[in-house]
Structures are given as C-alpha cells and as structure tokens.
Amino acid sequence: MSAPEVIEGDVAAGWAPRTWLGAPAPGGLALPPAAPTMAWLYSPRGVYLDDRHLVVADSGNHRVLIWHGVPEEDERPADVVLGQPDGTSEGPAAGGRGPEHGLHLPTGVLIHDGRLIVADAWHHRVLIWDEVPRRSGRRPDLVLGQPDLGSAEPNRGGECSARSMYWPYGVAVVGGRFYVADTGNRRVLGWAGGIPSSPDEPPDLILGQPGPAEREENRGEGVGPASFRWPHGITGTPELLLVADAGNHRVLGWRPHPGGDRGADLVLGQPDPYTAAEFPYGPQRADRLRFPYAASLDGDRLAVADTANNRILLWHGVPTASGQAADAVLGQPSFTANGENRWSGVARDTLCWPYGLWLHGDLLAVADSGNNRVVIWQRA
Q1: What is the pTM assigned to this prediction?
Q2: DSSP-derived secondary structure for 3-36
C-alpha cells in the first residue's frame, strides 16, 4: 500500500544554503564560462564531503576538483584538478591526449580510508588513488574495469563479464563491501573484501543480473524487486543497502545486505517493486520519485536526489516500509511542486536537475547539475 499523499509538510526542515561553488547567476541564469576555471563548474554530477575535503566530479569539463578543507565562501577555487593538464583546459581524455591522461564524464566520487575513488563513466572504469592528491595531474594507482590506464572500451572491448564495466556511474563502501553501480550493464558489483588490489580481482557479488554475461534492462523481463534499469547512486548502513535505480524511478533496499543475487526488501518512490511508472509531470507527492540519481544516508537521515522533480527529499529516520513518504523537501516550496528553479530565476535555494548529493552530519552537498554549481546546505 502506498503512503498517503502529502501536500504540505516540513518543507526545509531547518536546512538552508550556506556556500555556492561554481558560476554565479547574473540575470537569473548560472552559465559556465567559455573556458574553465578552478572556481567554476559545468554540469557537475557527483560530490563527496567530509570534515577535510570536498570532491566534485565536474562532469561537463571531464575533470575532478578537490578542495582541501570545506569551503565556506562562495566561488572559492579548488586546490587540485585531476583529468586535465591545468585548471583552464577541458575535453574528454584531457582534450584528446588519451585515457591514460584524462577522464571522460566522471560521475561518482568517494574518499574511503584515505583513498580517492572516481567512477570514470565513459571510459568504463573506476580509478583509485592510494591517497587524496595534493597536487594536480597526479595519475591513479589502480584501475578497475580495464586491463590498464590506456584502455577505455566498453566491457573491455568484448562481451560483458564479471571483470568488465559499461558506464559505471556510482561507487560506495557500505558495511565493509565495495560497490560499483555498473549502470550500462544494469547491475551492481560488490567486493566483500573492500576495494580490490588488482584490475583482475573479480567481484564476489553481482546484483541485478542472473549471471556475469547478462546485461539486459530489468533482466530482459518486466520490472521486479531483483532488476535494474539504470542503477546509479549507492548508500546504506551495515544493516541496509540502498540503490537509486533512476530509470525505474525508485530506490531499492536490501535488509540485510544481499549475499547473492536476490530481490530487494524495500522500495521507495513506487507503490510496489513491480511498478516503474514515471509519475505524471504535474503535482507531485512525497512518496514518488522521477529519475532519482543519487542517495546518501548518514546516521538516521536519508537524502535522495529526485532529479527530474528538481528537489531533494529527506527522511528523518531510516525508512522501514516500502512506499514510505519523505518527511521534508528541499528546493521546492511544497511536496507538490517540481519546477526547474521554481519556474523562476536561479536562487540559493532553488534546484535544476540535481544529480549528486552527499550527507555529512549537518551539512549536505548538492551537485546542482543544471545550474552548473555545487551548493553546500547546512542544518540549523
């Protein structure tokens, strides 16, 4: 049974924008410059935040930016750029220099145990630095999904296998297991021992497909609790794994974590695990999602980027029931609204296609992709 519709509620829940990183918005539009800078962004899709770092996948500029220290002033330039030779260059593979030198639409970013992890989606690989770089241009120490840094073919240039990737968009470490949202293969890969130590170390878990060679949408069948269309963001707790299945307009949850391929126990954004309807583009609800690309759970608070509805939904406790409605909404004046920038100009508290987010205590970093910026929100 779906949760009841919520028209008005705890709209901002004490959250307010604190820091704006990226292009300003003269005349109500936030546009990137003709040439990149270390301060401005172009369609960022991934973000990570902790006490000492902010990491942004500046996807449209095919680079990753790192701030050492959480920025507190607007438009502060980043300290480090990866994927480009300098802070004013752009283009896939470092402007055509090759995948060994650059990135192609990086999306997921993560720091875990002092290591930086980047999902280099259109190079069909995940890159790992053994420490967070403090200088620009440093090359990664390990590549997953490809045999070496110079290779960038989908599924290693062959058929889908346990060791190959096709558009990996999301990365996470949850409950000690390292996860990759292998989006183009419509599956999630998991390594129980944590981050692999070599490119050839296969995952012990393939979730969403019946075997390592299969890659069809929704397993080639109708949507169900064990299938994906576009798995993207991954988050959770040691007891709960959550995957944002953007193409099916839902978030799936497994409690406990799956030891093998099995159906989810929880679904958010849809009335049941067999429904994947896109809720009509009109008045929205607190229990529906449209293309949710990211989710972040910290403590007992869950945030989901409800991307096509131009809003962030918040649950004040870890959801326990399928169809559970959100408790608060950011970026819109109510749960029913969903306009890009509220059908007005760009303001500090508006959103336009938020693709990525990261909850860290009372801070929430949002990759507000359509507005070419990252905004750090703070809870009073």
Answers
A1: 0.96
A2: PPP-SS-BSSTTEEEEEEEE---GGG-----SS-
